[in-house]
Automatic annotation (TrEMBL), chains A, B:
InterPro entries: DtxR_MntR_Metal-Reg, Fe-transptr_FeoA-like, Fe_dep_repressor, Fe_dep_repressor_sf, FeoA_core_dom, HTH_DTXR, Iron_dep_repressor, WH-like_DNA-bd_sf. Signal peptide: none annotated. This is Transcriptional regulator MntR. The keyword Signal does not apply. It comes from Psychroflexus gondwanensis ACAM 44. Keywords: Activator, Cytoplasm, DNA-binding, Manganese, Repressor, Transcription, Transcription regulation. GO terms for molecular function: DNA binding; DNA-binding transcription factor activity; protein dimerization activity; transition metal ion binding. It comes from the Bacteria.
Amino acid sequence: MFSLSEENYLKAILHLQKTSKSGVSTNAIAEEMQTKASSVTDMVKKLSEKDLVIYKKYQGVYLSDTGRKTALQIVRKHRLWEVFLVDKLSFSWDEVHEVAEQLEHIKSDKLITELDKFLEFPKRDPHGDPIPDAKGNFHVANKTLLSNLSKGERGTLVGVKDTSTEFLKYLDKNNIALGKTIEVLDKEEFDESMLIQTGGKTLRISPMVTVNIFIKQ
Amino acid sequence: MFSLSEENYLKAILHLQKTSKSGVSTNAIAEEMQTKASSVTDMVKKLSEKDLVIYKKYQGVYLSDTGRKTALQIVRKHRLWEVFLVDKLSFSWDEVHEVAEQLEHIKSDKLITELDKFLEFPKRDPHGDPIPDAKGNFHVANKTLLSNLSKGERGTLVGVKDTSTEFLKYLDKNNIALGKTIEVLDKEEFDESMLIQTGGKTLRISPMVTVNIFIKQ
DNA sequence: ATTTATTTTTAGACAAAACTAAAAATAAAA
DNA sequence: TTTTATTTTTAGTTTTGTCTAAAAATAAAT
Ligand SMILES: [Mn+2]
Ligand SMILES: [Mn+2]
Ligand SMILES: [Mn+2]
Ligand SMILES: [Mn+2]
């Protein structure tokens, strides 16, 4: 259907449009895809030809309905494979992304239907992100950043914003994990750092950490 | 490491060199890969540059040690994925090939190690073909074609030579399956057709069938 | 409202992997 | 052993996706 490259562009645009009211800029896509702006312009023209995006010169790019649907199916595959790797093949959550980046491009409807069934229809991936269903629908959790909590408040860790290996390994090292309760024992006004309690331990974390953890209260 | 195309060429050459004492010809590769001879020459030069094959103009091509090793790892991945699809995702043996052709190119050592473990180190794929281990070693079964059996002889079906969907579906339809016992009730001299008994049924099969079934006596 | 800076697009080039058409080498036939 | 047929290689294109460098458009600053 679509090339590996086209699929990656669609996914990148889907990701970027969540954090911008207007169209997604050429430079933003280039940054996200680790490529050059001129390459982005070329590809965006091609996607526009195929009616996967709406594009007017210098005006940024928007996903069309089919473009959005296609992108959501790639995301679905990516996240289902991540669940597979963690639940069945004992990967840790910081090891799955690279492999899922490859697996998400395998073309087979039956494969993904059966994988979903085999995994017992998971609703979230190992990082807490929702898994779209076959029609592209998914449940958006009402979550907030840990940085928004005040002293004395508590909640459950339901997701991470930064999914880099470095960050995830840092969390592992400090016993901070998905599903665990976090309580804000203290919040330093000066640097916005927090003293938290989780997994039976008390530790101080910097704002770089608190703005990358999603909490459900 | 190697491109998808390079990997497919190596696999094709590995496959072809089993049935030819001398070097594998350009035309044979072209036929196997559904491409043109000129394309093969180009790629063979490239593989030769990378020391994956030994190639002298007009003399055919041979796999080098690293070429053979690489090809065997692709075969290993292909067959492990086929086992996964049949054993875990309820694919039938005639549906797996196309998907395995894609999955065999996923690059991750951990993935294949863990998959092997998850499947409990299978020795053969759903078509009875041996699965090379991480070092490229595999067990060659002493099997013979059903067509070589005489009236009265029997054996177990341990493999198929033709793995096309059409052939496999024909076998399914007639209750002929891997692991089942087959007894030759009669052999017609004139057209080499056979009357066989398997799965509690008696049926007559043509030589097109008998030369594509491997038996262990 | 100009000037300056930034972003985006165009123009031209390149590498990978395929193709067609023609030339060269090898194999088969006369 | 010539002649003919087949196989293989070369030469020149094409497509996809990328790049650099330069031009054009938009945004920011004076
Ligand atoms: Mn991921
Ligand atoms: Mn994820
Ligand atoms: Mn196969
Ligand atoms: Mn097989």
